[in-house]
Design goal:
Number of strands: 22
Helix content: 10-25%
Distance between the termini: 32 Å
Function: Catalyzes the oxidative deamination and cyclization of 2-amino-3,7-dideoxy-D-threo-hept-6-ulosonic acid (ADH) to yield 3-dehydroquinate (DHQ), which is fed into the canonical shikimic pathway of aromatic amino acid biosynthesis.
Organism: Methanothermus fervidus (strain ATCC 43054 / DSM 2088 / JCM 10308 / V24 S)
GO biological process, one term: aromatic amino acid family biosynthetic process
CATH superfamily of the largest domain: Aldolase class I
Order of helices and strands: EHEHEEHEHEHEHEHEEEEEEEEEEEEEE
Largest sheet: 10 strands, antiparallel
Strand content: 35-45%
Shape: elongated
Radius of gyration: 24 Å
Domain 3-dehydroquinate synthase C-terminal: 201-375
Family: Belongs to the archaeal-type DHQ synthase family.
CATH class of the largest domain: Alpha Beta
């Protein structure tokens, strides 16, 4: 999951407070600051403060707030004073970050070496065209540290987060205006919200199969008509199960809910991994997908598991058989080829619904190139 750290501008507390509250309201909960205001910042919410002060949540090495103090580059980077400092703080159980201004190959080497010690490496490049960010990302692949790229505008942010496909893990921003915070957040949200290719599948079987433990996912977001979650019995095929956004003569609309299926089923997650429905819990992030395949994230507020009558639904897409089970109730819907919700009580063989097909198999929720038979 991509993230943002906010470097507070200089100024009095009332000025800086506006940036902290706007950041927090936008979902940014890591603040970089070098003043004596750490305690004030933390009173505003559940916030982690990054600083070179002892009372910081994350101790920052290589920057002192005066625009200098980046990591030194000795002849042997592994023996540098900065790496020794990082090691000392790690032994004390402190979370650490290193601030590296990349202006030469030596700095790339230093970033790689200190990345073996600290939890985060903040990379600052005056010109990423001269010292390509991808070099540093490639050097640090396999190391423990998360990579944060310092960016000056949204265009740089997009490049940093998408470099070498994986991109930096996060970005460090220092906006001059409050409105810029939400602009950076939108860049991250757009990158995180991948598009999912939806295909049309033909229903080949609908059969009541008795009762089972089914899972309702209640989110902290409201969904629109056409939106739902990707769920299926097989890791290679997912049905777009519609949210309860429509009223019926029996119940009112619950646009925060997806009645997703039984406990064994897979659900597609925001990081393109899968989970079993039984694994979901309050506070998890789940993926919401609309009828055009656009994805966004939502937070799980509650998961309800209850014994309910189930329907087996099988379909065929491009010669591939997929299946899922859903509660046998009028309020449970799939999405047809026109992007409209259709109740399972009205569904019949030959109807067409939207599905997502995966080319890879799954191992512990991760896509892999492997032959797995599911039936």
């Amino acid at each position: 999951m991509k993230f943002i750290w906010l470097l507070l501008p200089k100024g009095d507390w009332e000025y800086k407070k506006k940036f902290v509250t706007t950041a927090l309201e936008s979902g940014i909960d890591h603040i970089v600051d070098f003043s004596n205001d750490i305690d004030k910042i933390k009173k505003l919410g559940n916030i982690k403060v990054i600083s070179n002060r002892e009372n910081a949540d994350i101790f920052l090495i290589g920057k002192n707030g005066e625009g200098n103090g980046t990591l030194s580059v000795p002849s042997d980077a592994k023996e540098s004073k900065d790496i020794a400092t990082a090691t000392s703080f790690k032994k004390k159980g402190k979370v650490t970050a290193a601030y590296v201004e990349v202006t030469s190959k030596k700095h790339e080497k230093l970033a790689r070496n200190i990345g073996k010690v600290v939890d985060y490496v903040i990379l600052v490049g005056k010109d990423w065209k001269v010292i390509p960010l991808e070099n540093v990302i490639a050097d640090l692949q396999g190391e423990k540290a998360k990579i944060i790229a310092a960016v000056s505008d949204v265009d740089e942010a997009k490049v940093a987060l998408e470099t070498l496909e994986h991109g930096a893990d996060g970005i460090l921003i220092q906006p001059s205006k409050l409105s810029e915070i939400k602009e950076f957040v939108k860049v991250v949200e757009d990158i995180e919200a991948k598009r999912y290719d939806l295909k049309t599948a033909k229903i080949t079987k609908i059969k009541p199969v008795g009762s089972g433990d089914r899972v309702c996912i209640d989110t902290c977001s409201l969904m629109n008509i056409g939106e739902g979650m990707l769920v299926g019995s097989y890791s290679h095929g997912f049905f777009l199960v519609h949210s309860e956004t429509l009223e019926s003569e029996y119940v009112e609309a619950r646009p925060f809910r997806v009645n997703a299926g039984p406990v064994h089923a897979y659900i597609m997650m925001p990081n393109h991994k899968t989970k079993y429905l039984s694994e979901l819990k309050s506070g998890d992030e789940v993926l919401i997908v609309d009828s055009k395949g656009n994805g966004r994230k939502a937070i799980v507020g509650r998961v309800k598991i209850e014994k309910r009558p189930l329907l087996l639904i099988e379909a065929e897409c491009e010669g591939m058989k997929i299946a899922t089970l859903l509660q046998n109730a009028e309020t449970i819907r799939l999405v047809n080829e026109k992007g409209k919700p259709v109740s399972v009580s009205e569904l019949k063989e030959g109807d067409k619904v939207l599905v997502h097909i995966e080319e890879s198999a799954r191992h512990f929720g991760m896509a892999i190139k492997e032959s797995i038979i599911e039936k």
